[in-house]
Fold this protein.
Amino acid sequence: MTHVVTSPCVDMKYQECVAVCPVEAFREAPTYLVIDPDECIDCGACITECPVDAIFDEFDVPEEENEWIERNEKESPDLPVAEGDSPVLG
Protein backbone atom coordinates (compact mmCIF):
# COMPACT_ATOMS: atom_id res chain seq x y z
CA MET A 1 0.00 0.00 0.00
CA THR A 2 1.14 3.54 -0.73
CA HIS A 3 -0.14 7.09 -0.79
CA VAL A 4 -1.08 8.97 -3.93
CA VAL A 5 -1.04 12.65 -4.88
CA THR A 6 -4.06 13.58 -7.02
CA SER A 7 -5.20 16.43 -9.28
CA PRO A 8 -5.90 19.09 -6.61
CA CYS A 9 -2.11 19.41 -6.36
CA VAL A 10 -1.77 20.51 -9.99
CA ASP A 11 -0.64 24.15 -10.16
CA MET A 12 -0.42 24.25 -6.35
CA LYS A 13 2.59 22.15 -5.32
CA TYR A 14 2.45 23.08 -1.65
CA GLN A 15 5.43 21.72 0.28
CA GLU A 16 4.00 20.97 3.74
CA CYS A 17 3.65 17.30 2.82
CA VAL A 18 7.25 17.11 1.66
CA ALA A 19 8.48 18.58 4.94
CA VAL A 20 6.90 15.82 7.04
CA CYS A 21 7.86 12.87 4.83
CA PRO A 22 10.50 10.84 6.70
CA VAL A 23 11.77 9.00 3.60
CA GLU A 24 11.88 11.54 0.75
CA ALA A 25 9.08 9.78 -1.16
CA PHE A 26 7.87 12.93 -2.91
CA ARG A 27 8.99 13.68 -6.45
CA GLU A 28 8.64 17.03 -8.13
CA ALA A 29 7.13 17.57 -11.59
CA PRO A 30 7.02 21.10 -13.03
CA THR A 31 3.50 21.85 -11.73
CA TYR A 32 2.69 19.15 -9.17
CA LEU A 33 4.09 16.51 -6.84
CA VAL A 34 3.84 12.72 -6.95
CA ILE A 35 4.78 10.01 -4.46
CA ASP A 36 7.20 7.23 -5.33
CA PRO A 37 5.39 4.06 -4.20
CA ASP A 38 8.72 2.26 -3.80
CA GLU A 39 9.86 4.85 -1.24
CA CYS A 40 6.59 5.55 0.60
CA ILE A 41 6.41 3.78 3.97
CA ASP A 42 2.68 4.44 4.41
CA CYS A 43 3.08 6.56 7.53
CA GLY A 44 0.25 8.88 6.45
CA ALA A 45 1.87 12.03 7.86
CA CYS A 46 1.48 13.81 4.52
CA ILE A 47 -2.30 13.38 4.30
CA THR A 48 -3.16 15.79 7.10
CA GLU A 49 -0.52 18.31 6.00
CA CYS A 50 -1.89 18.76 2.48
CA PRO A 51 -3.83 22.06 2.38
CA VAL A 52 -5.73 21.08 -0.79
CA ASP A 53 -6.66 17.51 0.25
CA ALA A 54 -4.81 15.99 -2.69
CA ILE A 55 -3.19 13.00 -0.92
CA PHE A 56 -4.95 9.71 -0.32
CA ASP A 57 -4.19 6.15 0.67
CA GLU A 58 -4.23 4.30 -2.66
CA PHE A 59 -7.34 2.37 -1.57
CA ASP A 60 -9.18 5.61 -0.73
CA VAL A 61 -8.48 7.54 -3.94
CA PRO A 62 -11.79 8.90 -5.28
CA GLU A 63 -12.88 7.08 -8.42
CA GLU A 64 -12.56 10.19 -10.58
CA GLU A 65 -8.89 10.46 -9.48
CA ASN A 66 -7.89 6.82 -10.12
CA GLU A 67 -5.62 7.76 -13.05
CA TRP A 68 -3.31 9.40 -10.50
CA ILE A 69 -2.47 6.05 -8.93
CA GLU A 70 -0.71 5.04 -12.14
CA ARG A 71 0.67 8.54 -12.76
CA ASN A 72 2.41 8.54 -9.36
CA GLU A 73 3.87 5.10 -10.04
CA LYS A 74 4.95 5.74 -13.65
CA GLU A 75 6.21 9.33 -13.31
CA SER A 76 8.03 9.17 -9.98
CA PRO A 77 11.12 7.22 -11.14
CA ASP A 78 11.98 9.92 -13.68
CA LEU A 79 11.49 12.94 -11.42
CA PRO A 80 13.83 14.53 -8.87
CA VAL A 81 13.24 14.20 -5.15
CA ALA A 82 11.17 17.13 -3.90
CA GLU A 83 13.30 19.24 -1.60
CA GLY A 84 10.49 21.08 0.18
CA ASP A 85 11.76 24.51 -0.72
CA SER A 86 10.11 25.10 -4.10
CA PRO A 87 7.76 28.06 -4.35
CA VAL A 88 4.04 27.46 -4.20
CA LEU A 89 2.46 27.89 -7.61
CA GLY A 90 -1.17 28.41 -6.65
